[in-house]
Amino acid sequence: MTLRGNLVGGEVPLYFVMAPSYHSSTLLALLLNNHPDLSSLGDTLPHRRLYPNQRCGCEARVRDCSFWQEVHRRLDADRFAHSDFMIPAYPEVSKDYRINSVVARSLTALSLSLGPGVWKLAPRASSEFLETFLRFGEVICELQQSRIFVNNVKSFTSLLALRSLLGKRARIRVIHLIRDPRGYFLSERKQNPAVTPRASGRRWLAYHRRVEWLKHYTGPEGYFRLRYEDLCDDGEAALAQLCRFLEVEPQPMCLPVVYPEKNHVLGNVTRFDFDGQIRPSLGWIEATTAEEQRQVLAATRPLSQACGYS
Ligand SMILES: [Zn+2]
């Protein structure tokens, strides 16, 4: 999302990481930032409502961070003071965030099946979203002197609304980050002891199937599956493949922060301890029973099997 004039015509490249919680997408953002051509910002959009005191990767609060304040200024984001996020993650048809998420999702689904004319129901909200979201990517690249902004907002509605509004001009590239569902189950259970293996497995499968379904819009050439375990086994090899997918020159990236001026990543608190190492997350082997592991795998087949988790 780096070309000014995107609204006029021509192809619009859009890069997204898609992953549910507990998949180390914040770590991936830090690794991507170690490439001079790439920018990624973790959870990407500062959240006004849920995390008013959110801390940035530079350790300042977002409201005090000079980078995010400059982004805010260049996007004239005071316009969205009532929004959930610094800028809307999808068209803002209603100012009530609960209503809006449902309405935006419905309009997006309708527009994909009936055609972009559906957005005539919300012309201002849709054009404001499109313009601001594309400009957001440009601003990030301008400020970080990079070429490609890899969006980590992880919202299907956001991605699909952009696809619907841009039509075939959208050249979507999806990095599908995937992790062993048994590890995902343990992470979920640490947050909520009532989580069952089956329910966790079903959530894992539903999310990852939806990401795979995005191939419908990306084509096979626009989809890249990245297993967390492959990052752990040989991070440089996995990232070199990812660089080729993103059409940038591979180079060593498993390093502590190379460009401190890009370290304004939002997301998991482990980012403050980032040292360039990617550690396997194998606590589930000891912390879950064989029966729980069996139930998770049963609930996540055939995808988990296809990914080598068995
Ligand atoms: Zn910052």
Short account of what is shown:
The protein has 310 residues and is α/β, with parallel strands linked by helices.
Explain how this protein is built:
This protein is an alpha/beta fold. The chain has one domain (12-178, 223-279). The chain is built from 13 helices and 5 strands. The chain has a 5-stranded parallel beta sheet with strand order 2-3-1-4-5, with helices on both faces. Helix 3 (97-114) packs across helix 5 (156-166) and helix 7 packs parallel to helix 12. The radius of gyration is 19 Å and the shape is globular.
Estimate what percentage of residues fall within beta strands.
5-15%
The largest pleated sheet is described as:
5 strands, parallel
In total, the number of strands is 5
Structural domain tally: 1
Provide the fold topology.
Blueprint: E1 12-18, H1 25-32, E2 38-40, H2 66-74, H3 97-114, H4 123-144, E3 148-151, H5 156-166, E4 170-178, H6 181-191, H7 197-213, H8 215-218, E5 223-227, H9 228-233, H10 235-246, H11 283-287, H12 290-300, H13 303-306
Parallel strand pairs: 1-3, 1-4, 2-3, 4-5
Helix pairs in contact: 3-5, 6-7, 7-12
